[in-house]
Amino acid sequence: MSQRVFRFATGTAEGSVRDAALLGQKGVYLHELAKSGLNVPAGSTLSTSLCASFFEAGGTLTPDLADGLAGAINAIEAQTGRVFGGAQNPLFLAVRP
What we know:
Blueprint: E1 5-9, E2 12-13, H1 20-35, E3 43-46, H2 48-56, H3 63-80, E4 83-84, E5 90-91
């Protein structure tokens, strides 16, 4: 199976222009901006195939999607020192279609 979650943060990114079919244009731009050293908040892009599996499953959270989301959130928590759902120092996320 190919990579389905691509992480990025200032100075580093797992995705690139060659992954445009998997990341979509917004995803590619975020990864390229992060790689170029611009101050991009830590984040992740879910692949189009992972999103498609969600819709193929009737809009339910499949185990692979749940694992992908959990891994992405855990990585952002580790990079930022914040906790998703935490009362102290909470992690806020922006989700884009």
